[in-house]
Amino acid sequence: MPRAKAVSTWSAWRAPAQHFDHIQLEQPIDGIIPNILGQAGNQKRLIEIAVTHPVGDDKLLTIIKLGFPAIEISLDLEKHTG
Fold first, then answer.
1. What average pLDDT does the structure give for the chain?
2. Residue 15 and residue 80: Cα distance in Å, rounded?
3. Which region, left, alpha or beta, applies to residue 68 given φ > 0 means left and ψ of -120 to 50 means alpha?
4. Is 46 exposed, middle or buried (0-12, 13-18, 19+ CB in 10 A)?
5. Residue 39: what pLDDT?
6. d(Cα 53, Cα 60) in Å, to the nearest integer?
7. Count of Cβ atoms closer than 10 Å to residue 55 Cβ
8. Could you give the CA distance from residue 78 to residue 68 in angstroms, rounded to a whole number?
9. CA-CA distance, 61 to 10, in Å (whole number)?
10. Which of 7, 30, 76, 82 has the smallest number of Cβ neighbours within 10 A?
């Protein structure tokens, strides 16, 4: 399965604020452990924080199969500063 591609190295946009009723850190869910699991009502959203490496192919495939909305935020400063 091909990897999702970033739009660009740097992207910024305004999006509607996301409000969560509950968040959990590093909470196992259906065979994966997202960095952050946010829940609003009965909807779950996954947030991955990439510091040293992005989400691996196996985890990405599981996220896609689960159908949860997900975002990966890259904090790899070395990658962004050259």
1. 83
2. 22
3. beta
4. buried
5. 94
6. 13
7. 20
8. 30
9. 24
10. 82
Residue 47 phi, psi (nearest 5): -125, 120
For 22-66, give the DSSP string.
EEEES--BTTB--SEEEEETTEEEEEEEESSS---HHHHHHHHHH
Token digits of residue 2: 């091909």
Residue whose entry in the numeric block shows the structure tokens 């975002």: 71
Residue 45 predicted with pLDDT over 60: yes
pLDDT at res. 7: 44
Ordered by start, the domain boundaries in the chain are: 22-81
50 Cβ partners below 8 Å, 6+ apart? 72, 73, 74, 75, 76
